[in-house]
Amino acid sequence: MTQNNEPNPMQIYLRHCAVGFLAAAVFVAMLLFYDIARLGTLVAGSDIGWLAVFLLWFFHGTIFGGVQFAVSIMLDAQDDTDDDDHQGGRMIPIRVPAQSRRR
After folding, report:
1. In angstroms, how far is CA 35 from the centroid of its own chain?
2. How far, in Å, CA of 61 to CA of 27, rounded?
3. Domain span at residue 40?
4. pLDDT, tens digit, for every residue of 35-71?
5. Max CA-CA distance within the chain?
6. Would you say residue 15 lies in a domain?
């Protein structure tokens, strides 16, 4: 029996999306607390302000969660190069003839 060291992608996705939604909650709370563009006043004076707050949180959470997940995936990427000598090799120009078709 071999041990698999690969992380479960669904756990990674859910964890980072939860962090993104938490960051979105903080962002929306600060947006409303500091009354940026008078959003706090507008939400407080509306009878369906809760819907606006929910939509702000949900859509920002979707964006922040996606970005959080993408950054975590990109930071976990491994270098797939097979050569370890870092000398680059020798580049030789090769002539490739090109022809155009005329109609």
Report:
1. 27
2. 9
3. 24-75
4. 999 999 999 999 999 999 999 999 999 999 999 999 9
5. 72
6. no
Residue 62 resides in a domain: yes
Sign of CA dihedral 9, 11, 12, 18: positive
- Block residue for tokens 């190069």: 81
Q: Which two tokens stand for residue 24?
A: 């979105």
Total number of domains in the chain: 1
Tokens of 12: 């990674």
Burial of 28 (0-12, 13-18, 19+ CB in 10 A): buried
Torsion angle, alpha carbons of 81, 84, 90, 93, to 10:
0
* pLDDT: which is higher, 98 or 22: 22
Q: Is 85 helix (H, G, I), strand (E, B) or coil?
A: coil
Residue 103: is its pLDDT beyond 90?
Answer: no
Cβ atoms of residues 48 and 12 within 8 Å: no
CA–CA gap between residue 37 and residue 66 (Å, rounded):
26
Residue tagged 């992608």 (tokens): 9
